[in-house]
Amino acid sequence: MLTELHVTSFKCFETLALPLRPLTLLSGTNGGGKSSVIQSLMLLAHTLSHREWSDSLLLDGPDLALGSAADVLNQQAARRRLSLGASAGDQTIRWSFRAENRRALSVELDSIEVDGEMVAPTAPLRWLLPSDWSRPRTVVDLLRSMNWVTAERTGPRELLPLRDPASHGRVGSRGELAAGLLYWREDTPVREALRKAGLPPTLFHQVRARMQEFFPGCDLRVSPIDGASAVSLRLKSDAKAEFQRPQNVGFGLTQLFPILVAVLAAEEGDCLLIENPEVHLHPRAQQHIGWLLALAAASGVQVIVETHSDHVLNGLRLATKQGRITPADVAVHFFSPSPDGGPVQPRSPTIDADGRLSEWPDGFFDQFDLALAELL
Fold first, then answer.
1. Residues facing 305 on adjacent strands
2. pLDDT score of 375 more than 70
3. Res 343: pLDDT
């Protein structure tokens, strides 16, 4: 499990050491920095996944396009270097990159620090480490296997891609590979901690059952298209209705579907980054997805979730009160711009066994109370 994120001179952060837990919730105002946390992790993950033999950080990739070096360097620091890294257990790796050309779409590796010791970036480099590196690659392996589901998920589509089974290990950043993953792995058993009792333990039946928790009476069907590398996803929102094209059912079903597939297909030790799981969901469903993500985190899958929804927050608070996850396994971070324009640092209220938070910073899911006070 990743236990801490390290960032220097990246976007709004001059320096950041952010604790990570089995379940980490990122919240905050628009432009406060929470998306930059996700992006820093995904920059490393994408570079390690898509450029195995490389000496640079890829800023413009197939799933994450952040622009040029000038777009990601912290403006206040006025440096031409940035540093990204992470800790996992006893291992900490920090990579420093230099941006000689601010218009470049990548930044060159400058130095490597492993557990406080400087390691020469001697070519050839593999996964941003010397290729003859013999120590355990814990941090690298966790970053390479990260599964990111962005807020810009694929909406209702007539057809979805079907690739070879090895290419469906993840649902895709936009959820576009979720139907293909379910097609290839429909008979794979879901881990016991996440199974709904009394039903077949296979991925298809468990995804279907979880969908029905959110949308009672709904059903789904995934079918290959003859003569094409594609599958069709058919849904129905009522048990008495016929299967329909996704365009003819609520957006919420297609937005939730890849998240449920990602959660239920995850193996112990995997890491999921999920942005705005509440998109197009009713408040009750938003609360339930927070609860289910807490359940996944307690089962050994690390979950980092970014949300604007107090209902998602309340879902994980309820899971804590019910004993589904321990307070020590939950981290909550609230990001907002510094009022004096200084460095951005999150506020991190703690949660207790009753699901109560230690503090409510200004702007932290308090808009309902503010509006109610004005109405009264």
1. 25, 274
2. yes
3. 74
Q: Kindly report the pTM of this predicted structure.
A: 0.94
At residue 184, does pLDDT exceed 80? yes
114 band by pLDDT with thresholds 50, 70 and 90: very high
The type of residue at 268 is E
**Cα–Cα distance, 322 to 338 (Å, whole number):** 35
| 332: its two tokens | 């909550």
How many CB atoms within 10 Å of residue 75? 10
**Average pLDDT over every residue of 217-231:** 93
For residues 297 and 303, the answer to whether their CB atoms sit within 8 Å is: yes
Strands (DSSP E) found in the chain: 4-10, 13-19, 23-28, 56-58, 81-88, 91-98, 106-114, 117-119, 125-126, 129-130, 147-149, 160-161, 219-224, 230-236, 271-275, 302-306, 330-335
Per-residue model confidence as pLDDT tens digits over 56-78: 998 987 788 899 988 898 876 66
**Of the options 3.30.230, 2.60.40, 2.40.30, 3.40.50, the CATH number for the domain spanning 1-145+271-376:** 3.40.50
Dump pLDDT digits (tens) for 254-281: 999 999 999 999 999 999 999 999 999 9
Up-side HSE of residue 128: CA atoms within 13 Å toward CB? 34
Contact 217, 242 (CB under 8 A): no
Residues 6+ apart with CB under 8 A from 367: none
Sheet holding 160-161, edge to edge: 160-161, 230-236, 219-224
The answer to whether the beta carbons of residues 66 and 106 sit under 8 Å apart is: no
Instruction: Write out the two tokens for 365.
Output: 């899911």
User: pLDDT-derived band of residue 238, with 50, 70 and 90 as boundaries?
Assistant: confident
Burial 336-353 (b: 16+ CB within 10 A, else e): beeeeeeebbbbeeebee
Task: Domain ranges for the chain, please list them.
Answer: 1-145+271-376, 154-269
92: left (phi over 0), alpha (psi -120 to 50) or beta: beta
- Choose between 74 and 53: higher pLDDT: 53
Q: How many residues does the chain have?
A: 376
Q: Answer yes or no: are the C-beta atoms of 308 and 279 closer than 8 Å.
A: no
- With 0-12 / 13-18 / 19 or more C-beta atoms within 10 angstroms meaning exposed / middle / buried, residue 323 is exposed
